[in-house]
Amino acid sequence: MSLSSLWIYAIGFLAQLLFAARMIVQWVKSEKAGKSISPVIFWQLSILGSLIFLLYGILRHDFAIVLGQILVYFIYIRNLHLQEQWRPIPLLFRFIVIIAPIITLAYLFSDTHGNFTSLLKNEAISFPLKIWGSIGQVIFTLRFYVQWIDSESKKESVLTRRFWLVSGVGSFMILIYAVLRFDPVLFLGQLSGLVIYLRNLMLGKMRRAKG
Fold it and tell me: Cα(181)–Cα(124) distance, rounded to whole angstroms?
C-alpha cells in the first residue's frame, strides 16, 4: 500500500471517527433519557464528518460516497436551524460550511481533469457494484429526508423509528458494498453504526411498551 493510499484512508477513518462519535453521543444521551433523542452535537459532528468524508469520496473516486454526502449535507444545517443552534456558530465557519459543497460540485463538473468522469468510470468498481452501492447510499441518505419531514411536522429536531429503520436497511446494503469494494473505512463505519441503529429501535419499542 502506497503512502498516498494511507493518507486517503486516514482521511476516511477521521470522517468515520466523527460519525461514530455523533452516534455514541446520541446513544449515551438517549440511554439517559430513556428514549431516542436528537442532541445538537449530533448535527455539529455530522457536518464536520460529512465535509471530510466528501473529500475521502473524491480521493477514492467513489461516486456512491460523493452522492450520499451531497444529498444529505444541508439537512444537517436545517436541523441546527430547528434547534436554533445555527446562528451561534461563528460566521466564518458557517460560510465555510455552506461554500464547501458548492466548491466541490464546481470542481467535479469543471471536468478540467475528468473529475466527474473519473467518479463514474472508476474501473476498480464494477457497474453492478456501483449501482448497488449507489442505491445503498440513496436509501441511507433518505433516512435524513424522512427525519427532515418528521422534524418539520413537529417543528423540532427529532429522530423517529422510521429514521432508524431506514438507517438499518441502508447501512446493511453499504456494509455489503464495503466488503465487495474492500473498503475498511466503510466497513468499520457501517458495522458500528448498525449496533446503534438497532439499539435505538429497541429503545423506541421499550418506550411504546411502557405506554
Answer: 8
Distance of CA 143 to the CA centre of its chain: 10
Alpha carbon 44 to chain centroid, angstroms: 12
Whether residue 143 contacts residue 170, with contact meaning beta carbons closer than 8 Å, is answered with yes
Q: Does the reported pTM lie above 0.85?
A: no
Task: Report the residue count for the chain.
Answer: 211
Per-residue DSSP letter, 121: T
Q: In angstroms, rounded to a whole number, what is the distance separating the alpha carbons of residues 72 and 65?
A: 11
Average pLDDT rounded to a whole number, residues 46-69: 86
User: CB-hemisphere CA count at 13 Å for 94?
Assistant: 11
Residue 149, all three cell numbers: 419531514
In which region does residue 90 sit, left (phi positive, over 0), alpha (psi from -120 to 50) or beta (all else)? beta
